[in-house]
Write a structure and sequence with these properties.
Largest sheet: 6 strands, antiparallel
Number of helices: 6
Order of helices and strands: HEHEEEEHEHEEEHEEHEE
Low-confidence stretches: 1-7
Helix content: 25-40%
Radius of gyration: 20 Å
Number of strands: 13
Distance between the termini: 39 Å
Structural class: alpha+beta
Oligomer: single chain
Shape: globular
Mean pLDDT: 92
Strand content: 15-25%
Length: 308
């Protein structure tokens, strides 16, 4: 089957034709490109280039069964009992691949189970995971019956920052295309300051301040020294309810890293001694569907299910 690369012609119709052929025809064991990005394209540019291609595919074969994203590229799936068509890719291109459902599920579970996020001082392995996040909104088709229920938890603070940074970057690049108009986020608690909420979120419609983190600082005396301390950590503003907030634009390529660094630094400042003392909870995508942050790198609650 011929691959499609960037050209002066509209890539969307060809992508739609390809999706129809792969979803109903023979399996494609090799990924077939549907879009090639410019070499200097950032997250937002890649996202907007993919949007019409994605919309064309959905218009041809219907809404997907599962939404999601990886370190590089979307992870959107149309599933039947026999076949899985996945839209994926990396920072260079978007691709479509059709798989045998049973073989795909088995291989994915084994990849998750065998992948360790990396010890302190070692390179991270988030890019080896099949996906970082997956959103199940009970779309048409049959969701995978053999699902990885474990949680990838890192062993050090450096990888905790990296995991959160990569999650936020994936949301910026992929979530608005797959779920237009919705916010996505979670609360982050620490064991030694249990019940105090930090909220990490991405709101595509909040123009110029799409990426955000906020911490409830009630209970601390808001002296000049305290305010200086919080600002030194990276907090920008404090509202009338004693919540500190930092909001950054999605167009800033450094924004996911800065939000991640601030969130993890605040957990450590509140006496967290290891990553296992953190919990991501109230995980939600517009209060619609089940959102699983399997590749976040932090403990999550509730877990997806019992892991064997």
């Amino acid at each position: 089957m011929a691959a499609m690369t960037s050209s002066t012609t509209d890539p969307a119709p060809t992508a739609g034709d390809l999706a129809q052929a792969l979803f109903s025809g023979s399996l494609a064991t090799d990924p077939v490109p549907v879009l090639t990005y410019p070499a200097d394209a950032g997250r937002v540019a890649r996202r907007e280039a993919l949007r019409p291609v994605y919309e064309e595919i959905v218009g041809r074969i219907g809404a997907p069964t599962l939404l999601g994203g990886g370190v590089a590229g979307p992870r959107v799936r149309w599933c039947t009992r026999e076949r899985i068509l996945q839209l994926s890719g990396d920072h260079d291109q978007a691709v479509l691949t059709a798989y045998d459902a049973d073989e795909f599920e088995r291989a994915e579970w084994q990849t998750f189970d065998r992948t360790h996020p990396g010890e302190k001082g070692e390179p991270h392995a988030f890019d080896a995971l099949p996906y970082l996040w997956q959103l199940d909104r009970k779309g048409p088709g049959f969701a995978t019956s053999w699902t990885y229920n474990g949680t990838i938890v890192v062993s050090g603070w450096e990888h905790a920052v990296t995991g959160l940074e990569l999650m936020l970057a994936s949301w910026v690049e992929h979530y608005p295309v797959q779920s237009p108009g919705d916010w996505i986020g979670f609360k982050l608690w620490t064991a030694r300051d249990w019940g105090r909420s930090m909220i990490v979120s991405y709101s595509p419609d909040d123009e110029g301040q799409e990426l955000a983190v906020a911490i409830d600082d009630r209970g601390a005396e808001q002296t000049g020294e305290r305010q200086a301390q919080m600002r030194e950590r990276g907090w920008r503003i404090q509202d009338e309810h004693q919540w500190w907030r930092t909001r950054l634009p999605e167009t800033d390529e450094d924004a996911p890293r800065l939000i991640a660094e601030l969130a993890i630094a605040e957990c450590r400042a509140r006496k967290a001694t290891c990553v296992d003392e953190l919990r991501a909870l109230d995980i939600s995508a517009g209060d619609h569907g089940e959102l699983w942050l399997t590749g976040l790198g932090l403990p999550t609650h509730p877990p997806r299910g019992e892991h064997w």
